[in-house]
Amino acid sequence: MPEVEGQKDAYMVHHNFQGHDNGGTVAINAMEKILIDAGATIYKETPAVDLCLDESGEIQGVYACGADGTVYQFNTPAVILCTGGFLQSEEWMDYFHLSYDRRDINSTPGHDGDGLRMAYSVGAATGNVCIMMLGPGLWGFSRDQDQIEYALTKTGALWVNQDGVRFCNEDIVTTNYTLAANAIMSQHEVWAIFDNAYINARATGGMLESTNDRKAGGALENLYADLEKGVNDEYLNVVKADTLEELAEKIHVPLESLLETVQQNNEMYEAGEDTMFGKEPQYLYPVSEGPYYALYLVSNSYCTMGGLQVDGGNRIRSTDYTAIPHLYAAGTEISGLDGTTYGLILPGSAMGYCIYSGRNAVQNAVKDWLE
Ligand SMILES: Cc1cc2nc3c(=O)[nH]c(=O)nc-3n(C[C@H](O)[C@H](O)[C@H](O)COP(=O)(O)OP(=O)(O)OC[C@H]3O[C@@H](n4cnc5c(N)ncnc54)[C@H](O)[C@@H]3O)c2cc1C
Q1: Distance 82 CA to ligand 1 centre (A)
Q2: Concatenated DSSP letters for 212-225?
Q3: What is the pLDDT of residues 338-359, one digit of tens each?
Q4: Mean pLDDT throughout 290-302?
Q5: Are strands 315-317 and 323-329 parallel, antiparallel or unpaired?
Q6: How big is the CA angle at 282 (ends 278 and 286), to the nearest 5 degrees?
């Protein structure tokens, strides 16, 4: 992700606080000012690398490593781990049996599982883990292809799985992104199928519905060019074919199933009723004349949630369920509260828990070791 101009320590995410652009930087700058005013020293680009233990094995701080290789030992009465989880670590994803494939990783850098590693090194128990998924996204999505991302992945058009059959009501994407991602990840592979008339209608008339980032209507003048990039790029996230036979071969689904699915789809479009999954009639689109396009759909993945267990004071629990002295955690590395489905219905639930748990950890660390 690009750095925000003039704000070198923050990465851009698509959140805006009222009256401000670049939401994340606004929040970080405000918190940084409070810390500096209170007399704190902030060490940037100095990641904690390990817990520091005394001779009896008790935690007495952390070791950290500066950009120039300097190793620091910070002695503290309490350590609060809040390193944001492990979405960018293939090794940790494997450890929790989470697939790294079929994900469009949307998180900012630095989520390598450092907090979990440090906590497990002193006997922390493993906690529930899930991934905040919204979707669907486009495999190997690049900003060059954003007209495809918005116009073609976030519609209720025809989706088929590896067997060439439908598996869900595609209009779920118009009401709940996170359930759409769950549905997609429940299959081995998923393709969204379009005919040329559909693409042409979007290229000239724009999207049918607005999303957070884009308004409906207006020409998408780059759409065909973006599709060609997808056809030719290394990810092969777009497949183009003149016939359905050629399309089935290229996306490796059984031809007979695909033809049957397309026929059913077209009949339901004519009848104005999805008799299989109850999709709203306005999201039924025919697949008639070629060329045809298939988009490889994946889940947009934002962060991992969970991995550690804490008590009500955000003290990290050990495998025998007691609190590990001097060790606390906050943020996404403990928030397994979503289970497998991110609570999209409650805006800010992820950040809200991070803010609450950070405060709770600090308050309890002060009470336990400083008062
Ligand atoms: C694109 C996007 C959109 C989102 N939208 C929403 C939303 O609309 N609503 C919502 O509630 N949530 C949203 N989230 C989720 C929310 O941003 C996260 O849940 C929250 O920021 C996690 O906070 P955290 O403090 O646990 O981790 P982070 O905010 O990731 O902070 C952890 C920090 O620790 C640093 N770090 C890592 N390792 C070390 C180390 N060894 N030493 C020192 N520092 C280290 C990391 O670099 C990072 O800066 C979104 C996330 C993304 C990526």
Answers
A1: 9
A2: SS--SBS--TTHHH
A3: 777 777 777 778 888 899 999 9
A4: 92
A5: antiparallel
A6: 90
Which residue spans within 58-156 are E strands per DSSP? 59-65, 71-75, 79-81, 103-105, 126-138
Q: Which atom of ligand 1 is nearest to the CA of 84?
A: 27
Write down the pTM of the prediction: 0.86
Query: What number does CATH give the domain 39-131+304-369?
Result: 3.50.50.60
Q: Whose CA is nearest to atom 51 of ligand 1?
A: 302
SS3 294: strand
Give 86 Cα–ligand 1 centroid separation in angstroms: 10
Cis ω before 2 (30° cut-off from 0):
no
Model confidence at 308: pLDDT above 90: yes
Question: What are the pLDDT digits (tens) for 22-31?
Answer: 667 777 888 8
What token pair was written down for 81?
A: 């781990």
Amino acid in position 306: G
Phi and psi based region of residue 273 (left: phi greater than 0; alpha: psi -120 to 50; beta: remaining):
beta
Domain 134-299 in CATH 3.90.700.10? The answer is yes
138 strand-pairing partners: 297
Q: Which of 227, 205, 226, 230 is nearest to 216 (CA)?
A: 205
Tell me 197's DSSP state.
Answer: H
72, 83, 105, 304: residue to mutate for ligand 1 pocket, most atoms within 8 A of CB: 83
CA 119, chain centre distance (Å): 24
Indicate the domain borders of the chain.
Answer: 1-38, 39-131+304-369, 134-299
Task: Find, among 219, 218, 236, the residue nearest to 228 by Cα.
Answer: 236
